[in-house]
Fold this sequence. Notes:
By secondary structure, this protein is mainly α. It has helices at residues 2-25, 44-62, 69-93, and strands spanning 29-30, 41-42. The protein has one domain (2-93). Strands 1-2 form a two-stranded antiparallel ribbon. The longest helix has 25 residues, at 69-93.
Amino acid sequence: MPLVSRFFAGVLLANAVPHGVSAVQGKEFPTPFAAPPGVGLSSPVANAVWSSLNAAGGTALLGRTATGARERAAVLAGAVSMSIFLAYYFGKVQGSAPGTTATRT
């Protein structure tokens, strides 16, 4: 079970990054709070809240420092998996992924 929690720690920590960056830049970005969820744009404040919740959850799941090679690999696998998913998903939502027709607002 520790490797699974390490994986999801990486997922949450990676997800905190784009929302936090959007928040500090003062830009709107999709969150689960938007309408429709994950597609509509949320305010920078909502993104700061979502980023903070993801960072706190990832940190809580990480617990003590991941010292073993398998634990570090699990965190890295979660972070890489989420990063690739986010790149694809938000590229599609914002119309910059290949083969999409969405327009930016």
